């Protein structure tokens, strides 16, 4: 019973971890900046300090709001921030992998810099399809620390709540 209560407490603590989402339009693209302003959950911090490969998945979604029917999803991605310790060089390899493609990579010397990479990875850029460039868009994001199944059937996810930001349509240059 105590194990179940501690697992429930851990799940509640992980779900309460806030996340910030900064969204900006840059030409035909939307730039998404994601960050966890508080410290990493204890389980992830311990894994990172042991030298094991550590990762946080950031689920990203862009929707075009509609009035009467559910919003249309325009883009879906998973940005995976990973840190791997190299015992030979004593450095941490930090990577940001978006939908299977490495978009950013660098090596850092300290555990604190590796922690910072997981908490605040580089921005993710999404090119808006031509038909949606003048639309109001809604961006949703969350951090996922761990996922699995319980009772071999029910999916479980430990992470933050979804954060939503509305992205206004770009100001048009109609006078011309």
Shape summary: globular
What order do the SSEs take from the amino end to the carboxyl end, as H and E?
Answer: HEEHEEEEHEEEE
Gyration radius, to the nearest Å? 19 Å
Runs with pLDDT <50, length 5+? 1-15
By DSSP, the count of extended strands is: 10
- CATH topology, by name, is Immunoglobulin-like
Give the rounded overall mean pLDDT.
84
Largest β-sheet summary? 7 strands, antiparallel
Strand residue percentage: over 45%
Assigned CATH architecture: Sandwich
Number of separate structural domains = 1
Q: Into which percent range does the helicity of residues fall?
A: 10-25%
Helix segment tally:
3
CATH class: Mainly Beta
How would you classify the helix and strand content by structural class? alpha+beta
Main features:
single chain, 176 residues, alpha+beta, seven-stranded antiparallel sheet, three-stranded antiparallel sheet, 3 helices, 10 strands, globular
Question: How would you describe what is shown here?
Answer:
The chain is an alpha+beta fold. The longest helix is centred in the N-terminal third of the chain and has 14 residues, at about 1-15. The strands form 2 sheets. Strands 3, 4, 5, 6, 8, 9 and 10 form a 7-stranded antiparallel β-sheet that branches. A 3-stranded antiparallel β-sheet has the order 1-2-7, with no helix packed on it. The chain has helices spanning about 1-15, 40-50, 110-120; strands spanning about 20-25, 30-35, 55-65, 70-85, 90-100, 100-110, 125, 135-150, 155-160, 165. The chain has a single domain, classed as Immunoglobulin-like (Sandwich). The protein has 3 helices and 10 strands; from the N terminus they run αββαββββαββββ. Helices cover about 20% and strands about 50% of the residues.
